[in-house]
Amino acid sequence: MSFDLNHKYWVSTRKEISQLLKKQNRLKKIEPPEDKAISFKIFSELYVLYVELVNKLTFIYHNTFQVQKRAVVRTLVESATQQLMKLKDELKDLEMSEYVYIDKALIARKLTPRDLVIWRSPQFLYRRPLEVQNILAENKLYMNDEEREVKAAKDWVPVTEAVKLIQAQERARRARVYKANIKYDKKFLKVYQRSKINYKFTFKPDQAMSIPVKRTIFSADFIKSDESCEDLRRRDDAADGAMEDEENLNILRNNAACKIQSLWRGYKTRKFVEIKKRFKEELYGMKKVRKLKRPNHKENEIEDMYKKEMLKKKLDEDFIKLINDERTRILQVRCPWMMEDISDHIRAWFKEFYDKTQDFHPYPPPVKQGTVLVVIDETMDPIEFQQSLGKKPMTKEEKKKKREKEKQDQRKKKAKLKLMLMKEAKRRKKLRDQGVIDIGYELASSQPIINMEETMETFAKDWRDVDEYLNKNHDPIVEWVKEEQLAKIHQEVRGLVDEYMRVEYELLREALAKDKNEKYKRQKVKYPKEKKKKKKRVPKDMTADRTLESLFQELKDEGIIEDVARKDFDEFIADFNFVADDTRDADGLTTLGPAKGDIKMVIQESMLGMGEFDIPKPKSILLIGPLNSGKKLLCQIIASELNAVFMNLSPEKTYKYADDLKYFLHVITKVAKAFQPTILYIEEAHRVFWKKVPPESRAIMPKLLGSSLNKKILKPLKKQDKIVLIGTSNMPWAAAGGIKKAFQKVLLIPKCDYGTSFLLWLELMTENAPEDMKEYAYSALARVLQAYTSGDITENVKETLNVERKMRLKTEALDPHEFLEYYLSKNDPPIFPPEQKLMDKFNKWFGKSNSLQKARNKFNAAKLAKAKKK
Fold it and tell me: 435: number of CA atoms within 13 Å, CB side?
């Protein structure tokens, strides 16, 4: 992105932040609304505004290179994202569900639910250290030009082989066509042309050919049998004689031109109407255009991102070098003068007090920052000092009593403050139980909002005289570095000056005591206590003698680390629930369950903490749902979008480490932390917590990781670790209670609805079926086969439209009944959609394991009990 565009984007976003902060300041002053719907409306409007703001700020942040400005934008992005998640949590608490529907706020902003997607990979990706990423990228980051050419040549080898294979297949096809259209007499060695040939080879106008092929229609006869060439010549001669008159010739030309023009205009109009109709169908979602995806598009994006990171790293190194150079320059040039000025100022302070009081003020101790107190005028003035001299010094008992009284006063203040906070918390809880939320308090006490306000105030103050547009080379502002280092060095030098000026101070006091014939007593110096560093117990590293690359390669060779195909959230084809917001009951709760597309929003929000910013996230997620509902696909999409290392800890992979489990757990933990972000994946996670292991599964020891999952893997993980455990299950009720403790968040993948089924058929048929298939067929297929899972539909299209069937599409039209036959007659036993009893079983287990769903069930039960009493 160009510098100019990023600058304009930043200017407009700053205005939006200011307007948003003003709106929040107005909301801080309102009384708590008694109506729950009003609170929901306010939070939903703020949520939509923050979604737009986060999208813009992340885009700006990853295209900002100037070091000092980047720090400002980073603070804004992180604070805005944290506030966004807090608003989402508030909406979830009001909705008592993982799924939130804010259609009215979206309509007001002219947005759709798809615009709420805040995942903009690779903008949210966690940046690995370049050395670690280089291992994963096969040394692509630090290659020179020669190495790049060699690597590119190796990458082109499979492409060359593919081209050769296509050419061979094309030659074989041409030979088959030739053989099918000739008759060869072996006895007389003659070739006879057949009279009637049904074969017709056509091509699509927009389809590029692999190699030039002559398109032939073998049944065509280009010379008409009833007209010879001589007859045509006679007609031409007769026409020449009849057109000697100039007027007749012009009339004939005009008629011919009109005919051509009318035909051309008709063709052009029909073509325009067809294009317009196609555009409307695509706009309404009735048809789709087949899109070609670049195979290495995602890898190239990530590589470009890390190249930007290399530039940022270079600018950071230059900034650190500038700081060090400036510090060295100040120490060499200004430090001696600085020390002399500080010494003169302290001596002047000595003299001022001696002239007025004939004594010296006690030297400020280092625990109170030394003579900084003199500069900020927090020492006693001469009158106060004289009054203090007349007082008797306090005894040890008096000092002790004074300290105890101060401690007692502090305890009373803390207890009073704690009591006030408890009363305020009880008041808010009481209001929340009644469905009333104190919006003003929630916004006023939000730390992310406070951080944003402080950052914007600091930016407005510091950057008002800086023209950002002129700094296209991303140079740091040197004056700020000078001021900052000068302040730091001044503080350090003052500490050194205080040490030798304290010696001078004691000499003056000793001389004064001799003059007054008094006993000299040296002043005690109180230094700040050094904080004792807690000795953390460092666990023994079992693989200290091995490199990370070797450990990574070991897990990859054993099949624990798997390569994941590049996929994005668009490949999880599902539609959103567009009617849930209109089905609210008297309590403002939605009565219609979520659609399959809503699960994508919940997962994306859970994965925000796996990015670069400090955002809360769950340590573990469990996806439950029937077979072929897309659970594993979602896990692969998450790993691909995060550019994460994918570790498969399923029982089929881990049973071989039963003899050395401690070593295995150590290696996966070490590699996961070194190469984070990392996805730890367990397929059919209920097997790890099985109540009773089936005899056929005992060989793979499914419960091997059951006891170690919490203690050895999840518990050592810190908040800032970009590691998450994701499990899938189609029988969660078969597991013991440990599965609920191991997985912090449980998500149920909803069953297919009509919208999801239609989008799925439309997408799959666009990629596999002919383009002339009518749109009503998609709607009929989606309606009839709506109850089937997305995996079953995908497998149906794959098997029904195989290579053999695709070759017969031109001669034998596709019948929608073929898809129904696949389920009923081509499989033994027939494939049926998941029963409603099974989905009820999933809903029941989900209601006991998801905290928000438990709260909603409890609320509904209380409401039902209250209705029965009436």
Answer: 13
The β-bridge partners of 193 are: 182
Question: pLDDT digits over 308-346, tens only?
Answer: 878 888 888 889 999 999 989 988 888 888 888 888 888
CA separation for the pair 763, 769 (Å, rounded): 10
| Closest by Cα among 44, 3, 42, 4 to 23 | 42
Cβ atoms of 818 and 777 closer than 8 Å: no
For the question of whether the overall pTM of this predicted structure is more than 0.90, the answer is: no
CA distance 468 to 7: 8
- The DSSP secondary structure of 733-759, one letter per residue, reads GGB-THHHHH-SEEEEPPPP-HHHHHH
Q: Write the single-letter amino acid at 498.
A: D
The owner of tokens 């994306």 is: 604
Is residue 679 within 8 Å of residue 639, measured between CB atoms? Answer: yes
Q: Compute the distance between CA of residue 812 and CA of residue 829 in angstroms, rounded to an integer.
A: 28
Digit-coded pLDDT (tens) for 72-124 = 999 999 899 889 989 998 888 888 888 888 888 889 888 888 888 776 555 66
In the Cβ-directed half-sphere of 51, how many Cα atoms lie within 13 Å?
A: 24
Segment 556-583 shows an average pLDDT of: 85
Distances (CA, A) of 428 to 431, 433, 563, 822: 5, 9, 50, 59
Judged by DSSP in three states, 729 sits in strand
| Closest to 123 in 3D by CA, of 612, 763, 456, 660 | 612
Residue 473, SS3 per DSSP: coil
CA distances from 145 to 111, 250, 299 (A): 46, 69, 19
Query: Which is nearest to 792 in space by CA: 800, 802, 780?
Result: 800
